[in-house]
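Task card 7
Instruction: Convert sequence to structure tokens.
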Amino acid sequence: MGSNPTSTAMLHLLRLHYGKIVFIIYIAVLIYGYLTPKITLKRIYYTDTAAMLTSGVIINSGKKDLLYEPAEQFKAYGSLVQENVTSHPISLPFRNPPFVAYFFVILAPLGLLTAYKIFFVLNIILLHITVYLLSKNSHLSQNLKLTLFSSFLLPTTMYAILLGQLSIIILFLLTLAYITLINQKDFQSGIITSLLLIKPQYFIIWPFL
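Output:
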């Protein structure tokens, strides 16, 4: 059965302009919502990035043994937002495995705003790489590929990036695991899958890969 000409044309246009569309949308949102000086830091207080940066602050201060202590996390959070915080309703606790904290050790000295921007750009880059890898390695019909590409333009995807969540990194790791599995590279797939420990609950996906 032949391909739908409309879907084929849309897929072709999306392939040509996907990067431009996503780049324009995300940068526009970033400039409007997160680069406005008076509201930038207040909005970033709500992000997962702020919570995870507290782990980097704690380790850099030489208190890695107190990584999961609420009082120490509030103190580290307070240093990030430049407030005296003992209990804050919008701060999130750091509950990821310790090795995740060492990534944020690098970002923590840069300050909340700069670290957030770097993590934001990193997520966009990983999203583009993920789309490219899935396009090249998945054996899907053109209609399904069009659906795949379109899903990355959804508000939920943008929201995950704006909140500085680990979702895009996990998606990237799952993509690599999938590609290594379909190419019968079990050893590499196992190594990549072990990195899902950044969010241990995602191991529930492994039996279905």
